[in-house]
Amino acid sequence: LLKATLVALTRPVSVLFLPVLLGRGTLYGAASGAGPLIGANYAGLGTAEIASLTAMAGLVAGVLCMTLGGWLGDRFGAKRIAIMWLGAGLVMLAAMYWGEPFWSDPRVVAAFIFAWVSLDMLLTVALLPIPMRLCDAKVAATQFTIYMAVSNFGISFGAFMLGKTGLMGGLSSIFMVVGAGYLLALGLMLLTFAQLRLTRAEQAGQKAR
């Protein structure tokens, strides 16, 4: 069992996908703490207001996942949609990093909370089918559990880095850290997607012969 799991996890496509899951988790770990900090320290929002915004954002994200998220994945494919959400996440992170002077506006904080919660859930919906397909039937349960553990490690890493923002130049630096993870994840997704298309083209050419 251990040998089969190691073989499955060390396949090139599997190794390339692990940092993608790590980057996805980093956003959740960092943003779930950064949102309340920005709301309380910059926009003057109370605990009840922040909790209400987060709850509403979760509700909206759930509806989007049940409608838009699933349909887009079926219509265009999980990889394409994951790439799209990673790109959208990078735009959001860049906007928050460069938009620090506007953090005092409660509307900006609300938009950020709604955006990150929705993007995180939509990206999760898009990414989940990929590790399922990568799993070897012989060790599928063990392999998928490891994939999810890597994603959860990303959550812990994001929260850890949020606690280090004082050493990195301020709270806005967390968006650079998460952005770096998202940029790596996007690059790896584009690389694996290009390799997959090349492999399919080669297989099609061989069949044509």
Structure description:
The mean pLDDT is 87. The longest helix is centred in the last third of the chain and has 36 residues, at 173-208. With 209 residues, the protein is mainly α. The protein is globular, with a radius of gyration of 19 Å. It contains eight helices and no strands. It has helices spanning 2-9, 12-41, 47-76, 78-98, 106-127, 129-134, 140-162, 173-208.
SS-based structural class? mainly alpha
Largest sheet: none
Question: Share of helix among residues?
Answer: over 70%
What global shape is seen?
globular
Rg measurement, Å: 19 Å
The count of helical stretches stands at: 8
Distance between the termini: 39 Å
- Assembly classification: single chain
From N to C, what is the helix and strand string? HHHHHHHH
Strand % is under 5%
Mean of the pLDDT scores?
A: 87
Low-pLDDT sequence parts: none
The count of strands amounts to 0
List the helices and strands and how they pair.
Blueprint: H1 2-9, H2 12-41, H3 47-76, H4 78-98, H5 106-127, H6 129-134, H7 140-162, H8 173-208
Helix pairs in contact: 2-5, 2-7, 2-8, 3-4, 3-5, 4-5, 4-8
